[in-house]
Design a protein that fits this description.
It is built from 12 helices and 17 strands. By secondary structure, the protein is of the alpha+beta class. Strands 5-17-10-6-9-8-7 form a 7-stranded mixed beta sheet, covered by helices on one side.
Length: about 475
């Protein structure tokens, strides 16, 4: 009977074999100086899909391994002294004493802490010109030896490298990377919504509108139904940001300091992802996708009271009803909007909408998703399955203590078209700081025009209804 470890090993071997097949397919087209043909593309995408599925299984099984290790019990009540050496324990075992398994807790105080610690260990190693393993062993070796093993298995020479040192963090252990990404998902509306995931760089053609059928008499001509079609292709675009953290903060081993580092990593990309996703900003070729409000149906709010809200809801649904596209709808709104709706009361003081909170809930039976990046002036109704997104490609984390950075949200420096910097540059070396760069490759697009509608100019208040 196979153990969990056996299953993990089998899956790892299968994953390596599939990755090898992908490399062979790519190399075949490269050697021929051509793009992949249709069959090669399908096979490549299928292999990639299988690897993603295996990665999900590996993440679960590895967590199960950790849980099993933490749940391990000694054979009997005999306990080893915490000061016993390995040789003393071995001697007792040879003399018939039971082997005691010491349960070492993972010491995870908040979600994403293990990935954050991996980043901190490698960053400090770069600053101090030492091995990241020595940092990890000194700070967390006793409480979290598994983390030390993970760092030991990754690139050990990061401290001696220069330039884009830290790039290997993109390949960090999926157990910790996955946990960090899960935390990121909780912070972005883009990741909360059940958008339809599609392969990258693949043309997807679909029907944008609804055709009309006709009753036709015998021998009579059949009327032609007008059809609208869409054509979507998503190429990976990158959302990125740089956070500057003092070396003293990274050296602080307290959970609160680690949380600050984690939140800096998340905040670096979450804000921009949602701000663009929920906007009416046009696409910039090769740079950013169009916000989902571009081209969306919009109307002005009917009023700030309960009656106005009901009218706004009716108007939103009228659009989707006319498009024959009413299934699976959801609201997106600012937390302040959700709170105003939650506080609406009837003339008798009863809650008008008891199932909505600032965290979400439902509004008139449909799910509600909230984000600070949804305009407080908009009430958005959308169909998540009609919005495409490419599968998440993970995070790429790089860092430097020697870079000189334009610490501004409008940097002018560029490598393709060099120009003078208008913002005063800051030296990481001189300011005893470390710059952490986070890059996430994503893209999204509406499947059809009727995927989104919104009410603008809202200002709902918590007043009571006149009913």
């Amino acid at each position: 009977m196979k153990t969990v470890s056996d299953q993990v090993k089998d899956l790892e071997n299968t994953r390596a074999a599939l990755a090898g097949q992908m490399a062979d397919i790519a190399q075949k087209s490269i050697d021929a100086s051509r793009s992949m043909d249709e069959d090669e593309g399908h096979e490549f995408d299928n292999l990639e899909s299988q690897i993603k599925s295996i990665d999900v299984d590996l993440t679960r099984l590895r967590r199960l391994e950790t849980m099993n290790a933490q749940a391990a019990k000694p054979v009997n009540s005999t306990k080893a002294s915490p000061r016993q050496t390995d040789s003393e324990v071995a001697s007792e075992v040879r003399n018939g004493a039971p082997r005691v398994i010491v349960n070492r807790e993972a010491d995870e105080k908040f979600q994403g802490q293990m990935f954050t610690r991996t980043v901190i260990a490698k960053a400090l190693a770069h600053v101090r010109q030492c091995s990241p393993i020595s940092i990890a062993e000194k700070r967390w070796g006793k409480t979290n030896p598994k983390l030390v093993e993970v760092i030991r298995a990754s690139v050990e020479g990061g401290a001696a490298d220069g330039g884009t040192w830290g790039h290997e963090l993109a390949d960090s252990d999926t157990r910790y990377m996955g946990d960090f990404i899960t935390y990121l998902w909780q912070k972005t509306l883009y990741d909360k919504l059940p958008l339809r995931e599609v392969p990258a760089r693949v043309h997807i053609k679909g029907q944008d509108g609804v055709g009309t059928g006709y009753w036709v008499g015998e021998s009579k001509p059949i009327p032609v139904s007008a059809q609208d079609y869409s054509d979507v292709e998503l190429t990976p675009l990158k959302v990125a940001a740089i956070s500057v953290i003092s070396n003293e903060l990274m050296a602080d081993s307290s959970p609160s300091a680690e949380m600050l580092v984690r939140d800096a990593l998340v905040g670096a990309i979450a804000q921009r992802t949602d701000a663009t996703f929920m906007s009416a900003a046009a696409a910039v070729g090769g740079v950013s996708p169009a916000g989902i409000l571009v081209g969306a149906s919009t109307q002005t709010s009917s009023g700030p009271d309960v009656e106005g809200l009901y009218e706004d809801i009716n108007n939103l649904y009228a659009y989707f009803i006319a498009a024959y596209n009413t299934g699976g709808l959801a609201y997106a709104m600012n937390p302040s909007t959700a709170k105003a709706i939650q506080l609406m009361r009837s003339a008798l003081g009863q809650k008008q909408f008891p199932d909505i909170t600032t965290e979400g809930g439902t509004l008139e039976g449909d799910p509600v998703y909230t984000s600070d990046n949804v305009s407080a002036s908009n009430l958005v109704l959308l169909k998540p399955s009609d919005i495409y997104k490419i599968g998440d490609m993970g995070l790429e984390v790089s860092m430097s203590r020697d870079a000189t950075i334009e610490q501004a949200n409008d940097p002018t420096g560029a490598s393709d078209t060099p120009v003078a910097q208008t913002n005063f540059p800051v030296s990481m070396f001189q300011s005893e700081s470390t710059a952490i760069k986070v890059v996430r490759r994503i893209n999204f697009a509406k499947r059809r025009a009727s995927a989104v509608a919104y009410i603008s100019g809202i200002g709902y208040s918590q007043g009571t209804s006149g009913a």
